[in-house]
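Dear all,

This email documents one entry for the complex benchmark we are building for the journal club exercise. For each entry we list the sequence lines for every component of the assembly. Then comes the predicted three-dimensional structure of the complex as a token string, followed by one or two observations. Please use this as the template for your own entries, and keep the labels exactly as they appear.
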Amino acid sequence: ADAPARPARLGLCAACHGETGMAQVPGAPNLAGQRLDYLREALKQYRDGRRAAPLMRAAIGPVGDADLDALARWYSAQTPQAPRP
Amino acid sequence: ADAPARPARLGLCAACHGETGMAQVPGAPNLAGQRLDYLREALKQYRDGRRAAPLMRAAIGPVGDADLDALARWYSAQTPQAPRP
């Protein structure tokens, strides 16, 4: 499949998850190569509170569905990198 | 770091997440190479209901803390594989 275009809202996520989905801060998960269905479902769960994570809920609350889908596609399409030493 | 020993309870997780952390079924996330702190926290959240996921809560409810830690270490130490075509 073609690589997805860089999402307009990527910067919001990249602060913690990195532009290519490798976590930048403690507590944040890597997202690179994660399954698309799982990423979509996790975003829904953060939004509706089934995952009680205030930071994520606040971060994605204002982001529209189409933008969230673009972000899930972007991260799922990335290749995981080796951890930095 | 040395690779962790294969956890005694790995089979429980592997049915959905694979022995090396590549998901086997729709809806399950890849775990290979995921950050250890994130895996530990996610397991706690499943157990105490902050993540409302009945399957995961049922699966890990009977598993002791030491076994959960061994499982988190195992999956974090795996190298992500390319998706199967």
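Observations: Residues 36-48 of chain A form the longest helix (13 residues). The CA atoms of residues 47 and 57 of chain A lie 5 Å apart.
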